[in-house]
Amino acid sequence: MRTGAAELRLRIRNGELVVAPGVFDGISIRMALKTGHKALYVTGAGTSASFLGRADLGFLSARDVVHVGSLASQLAGPQVPVICDADTGFGGAPQVARTVQEYWRAGIAALHIEDQVATKRCGHLDSKQLVGQDDFIARIKAASHARDQLCNADVQDRIVVIARTDALAGLGLDEAVSRLKMARDAGADVGFLEGMTTDAEVHRARSLLKDWPLLANCVTGGKSPLWTASDCKELGFSIAIFPTAGLFPAARALQHSYAHLLSTGIGAEAATDESRSVDVGGADPRGLRNFFVDMGLEDEVALDRLAADGTGLGAV
User: Fold this and answer.
1) Catalytic residues, which ones?
2) How far is residue 119's CA from residue 271's CA, in Å, rounded to a whole number?
3) pTM here?
4) Hey, where are the domains in the chain?
């Protein structure tokens, strides 16, 4: 039987677009599987919100993500690959290697590791701070080495290492592509250029990275266009993750029902009139930030300003 990693590699090799909705707990995993999805993405932002009740500002540990990723892989089985956020790898080279090992043992098919500093934040917030090229490539080398030590059998069964760079926003497209080229040479299987804002940037990146598979991060209310799965296929991506596809509707439905209970004495799920309807859509350009505000973003920023005199998180 193929592993989830082997299944993911096969689909990429066959030129399929792997579409993975964001999941963050047992209910979201079950609903994604029930509706027929053939891949899952364990979102760091969603896991931080659901598991910790905090905005995506580097609070997650590897264990937090493994908890959700392991559950997803158990419920989904190897025919539904599970892709997971791994933030910065959760430390230096030895810690990155351990992260790869722990994710693999949990049945996770792929993970992405980025070039932000340890006190990272969601890639679609502002003021991101990056490590140097050497530190980023050290992470990717450690991840690739750990991957290659996992299996003595078919290399296709090894976890897929995705190199993510957040360099575009602060350092420009050329630097972002340069970092991904080095990551590819260091052994990464897939590239992830975070925060692209136009189709032209995608075409430019793909032309410079040749035939290397790339991942699209389709975040509603983020910095990238509202790409559909069809758009991603046309643009030439190999993987398209939709981190907020379940997160935002779940949050809106919870808020609506709890407010309905407070005002009427019964939850919206039991209402018999139109008040039970929930508006879960509307591609609000500030939707992502507003969600993070609900998860305590402003409190964290205020504490950071108090402690670091404004030199830490910056204007997120």
Assistant:
1) 41, 56, 85, 87, 112, 114, 122, 164, 194, 217
2) 44
3) 0.94
4) 4-245+283-308
The class level of CATH for 4-245+283-308 reads alpha beta
Look up residue 73 and give its two tokens.
């892989």
| pLDDT, tens only, 142-160 | 999 999 998 765 788 999 9
